[in-house]
Write a structure and sequence with these properties.
Length: 99
């Protein structure tokens, strides 16, 4: 019984613990939501605001360059600021950016 067997048992324990956590989360997620128990990784990086909103995920916040307010991307007004696309909190701010 040396260090190796201790490390082996530790790794085995961590693996089982991790597995149990995943199974438990999938079970609880399926129980609470009734569908889609396993969250799909890498979705938050995609450029699909409609799909993001449909899944009820936390929305990406965009910063209004005119007034500095942070707004959810789906409710922000898309416009142009200093030659590039930008999101604004309101039509008023988008209008200010154009002038
Ligand atoms: Zn604004």
């Amino acid at each position: 019984m040396g260090v190796l067997s201790f490390i082996y048992r530790l790794l085995l324990f961590l693996f089982v613990f991790r597995l149990a956590a995943v199974v438990l989360r999938a079970f609880l997620g399926g129980f609470l939501q009734g569908k889609n128990p396993v969250p799909t990784p890498g979705v938050q990086g995609s450029d699909d605001p409609s799909g993001t909103a449909a899944r009820g995920r936390i929305e990406e916040l965009v910063r209004d360059p005119v007034c500095g307010v942070h707004t959810a991307r789906s409710s922000a007004v898309l416009g142009r600021f200093e030659g590039r696309e930008a999101y604004f909190c309101s039509e008023e701010c988008a209008q200010k950016a154009r002038n």
